[in-house]
Amino acid sequence: MFMEIANRIKEILEPIANERKYCVVDIMYKREGGKLVLRILLDKEGGIAMDECAGLNSELSELLDKENAIEDQYTLEISSPGLDRKLEKDKDFVWAVGKKVKVTTYAPLDGKNTFRGTLIGLGEDTAVIDENGISTEIPREKIASARLESDIDWSKK
Q: CB within 8 A of 4, min separation 6: which ones?
């Protein structure tokens, strides 16, 4: 049931997102603390602002009510995936090419489990990371986690 609703929401949301050049990162519909929550993560080139999320929240809420897409009472949350956005799906990795990432592997490759650098490419089953001029090809099935790395130095704030 939850997956069916998430797919229905995606059908309603995608034309709006495409028109505004938003990338739908994830749609989650699940029970949290006894309440139903519809959580939508959006991004766009240069990042998505809070006022964009708030505006879309109001607009989408109205549209979902009109379409009667969800019969139960729920909370709608629209937000950015954050500065350390997780990379899970193929489209996430494609989007992240050229960006700084942190990749952790299940088992050591070349003697280490953590790779930090620029995602410079994707093979059929690999991600290629450039760490200070050294390229490492990481098999996708060996990736335990992958995230964007922020350029922000929080120690100076």
A: none
The reply to whether 63 and 107 lie within a common domain is no
3 state SS of 49: coil
Using CA atoms, how far residue 142 sits from 33, 47, 109, 146, 155, in Å, is 33, 29, 9, 11, 32
- 133-139 long-range contacts (CB < 8 A, ≥24 apart) are 136/109, 136/110, 138/103, 138/105, 138/109
Instruction: Please tell me whether residues 15 and 56 are part of one structural domain.
Output: yes
> In angstroms, what CA-CA distances link 100 with 35, 93, 128?
36, 11, 12
pLDDT of residue 16: 92
Give me the residues of the chain with pLDDT under 50, please.
Answer: none
Residues 67 and 8 in one domain: yes
User: What's the CATH code of the domain at 113?
Assistant: 2.30.30.180
pLDDT computed for residue 141 by the predictor: 93
Domain assignment present for residue 100? The answer is yes
